[in-house]
Prior knowledge:
heterodimer, A: 83 residues, alpha+beta, three-stranded antiparallel β-sheet, B: 416 residues, 18% strand
Amino acid sequence: xxxxxxxxxxxxxxxxxxxxxxxxxxxxxxxxxxxxxxxxxxxxxxxxxxxxxxxxxxxxxxxxxxxxxxxxxxxxxxxxxxx
Amino acid sequence: xxxxxxxxxxxxxxxxxxxxxxxxxxxxxxxxxxxxxxxxxxxxxxxxxxxxxxxxxxxxxxxxxxxxxxxxxxxxxxxxxxxxxxxxxxxxxxxxxxxxxxxxxxxxxxxxxxxxxxxxxxxxxxxxxxxxxxxxxxxxxxxxxxxxxxxxxxxxxxxxxxxxxxxxxxxxxxxxxxxxxxxxxxxxxxxxxxxxxxxxxxxxxxxxxxxxxxxxxxxxxxxxxxxxxxxxxxxxxxxxxxxxxxxxxxxxxxxxxxxxxxxxxxxxxxxxxxxxxxxxxxxxxxxxxxxxxxxxxxxxxxxxxxxxxxxxxxxxxxxxxxxxxxxxxxxxxxxxxxxxxxxxxxxxxxxxxxxxxxxxxxxxxxxxxxxxxxxxxxxxxxxxxxxxxxxxxxxxxxxxxxxxxxxxxxxxxxxx
Lengths: 83, 416
C-alpha cells in the first residue's frame, strides 16, 4: 500500500507544498494543502484519490498526474562533517 | 546534553543512489556495472556514482572515466538525470514518512529520524519495515543501509559499516566495541589532512582518539567541532545546530566551444535569474552580488557589487551588466573562460527591507518587484521559462541551476 493510500489530504499541514507533475507532458505545478482543501470533493479524500482527480493544467494535454510532497523544510547540511 | 542508554536515532543511507535509481528505472541496466557521468559521451571527466556491480569490480565514485573503463571494461556509462533522482528522493521520503517521521534530510540520499520509545526495544524490526516498504512501493533495486545508535553521528557510522543493504544496531551498552574496529578515516568529518594532523599529535587509532579529552579535541580541530565529535563518539546526544542561509548562487563549467566572454555572459545571466528566483521563493533579499570567472591557465577574475537589498530580476541583472563591464576590462584578449559563477550574498528577509536614506528607489523597486512577481507567476503556470527579462540562452548540457548538493535538493521549477 503506497503512502498516498495511507494519508488523507486533511492530514497534511495547510502550508504543505504538493508537486503535481503531468505523467504525459511533464508539466509541473505546485499546490498547497490549503488550496486543494478548498475543493469540496477533496476534504475527505486520500491522496491517491486526489491524484486520480487532478489533471495536467495544460488544457491541450489534461493528462493524468503524479503528486509528491516537497520536503525542503527538513533539509539540513553537514557542519564540520558531522551528521 | 544527555547520554542515552537506549537507541534513539536511526540514519538511512541509500546505496549507490544515482546508479540504483537508474537501474530501477531502466531494466536493461539491472545486474550490470553502471557508472553515472555528468553528461552524454563524457570522456575527460569522472564517474559521479557507480552501481554495486561496478564497485565490486573496483570502480569508485569520483574515478576518472578512462580509469574506470580500464578496471571494468564492461561498465555502462549513463548520463546523470537530476530530475529523476529528485523525484525518486521525494517518493522515498514519502514512503519512509509513512513508517517513521523524518527528523532531518542530510542530502539527497541520506536522512535521519528519531526512534520512538516503543520502537527502541526492537530497532531491527523497524529497519526491516522501512526496507520492506521501499521494496513493495518503490522497487527492489533501490536499497539502503540503516544504522541505529544513541546519536546521529554513531547511527551514520553504523549505517556505513553495514553497506550495502545493512541494518546495523549499535546499542549504547555495546559501545565502544564497534568503534574500536574502525579506523580514524571511517569517522565522518576526518579526512586525509585531519588524519595527518592527528598523527602529528600521536593519535593514530580509534582507541587513542577516544582516550583524549573534549577540550583537547577542540584544540586539535581548532574549533568546537572537535569537542562535539568527542561527545558524539562517547554516545552523548549532541548535534550541530543547523547552519543559517548565507547565500544563493550557481556555478557552471562551460563546454570547450562556449568559453568566450559572450557565451559566459549569457550563461551568467541565466544562472543569476535562477539563483534570484530561488532566493525570492525562500523570502530573501540580497545585499551583494559576486561574479567570478575562472580562465584557462589558472587565472581568474572576480568582481563584486553592492545591492540595495533587492530580489527582483531587473535589479540583479542591471548590476550583473555593470560587473561584466568591469570584468571585461580585466580579462586578457581572447580569454577562455572555463567556468563561472554568480552569488547573491548579504541576505536579509524580504519582508523587512531597510530603505537607504541616500537612495530613494522604493517606488521603482516596487514596480520591478511586481513585474518579477508577474513573470514568476506566468512561468509557474506554464511550467517553463516562458517570460524572462532579456535573452534566455541555456548553456549546452542542460540542468543549469538544477545541481544537486548536500544542502539542496532541487525542485522541478529549478530545471525550467
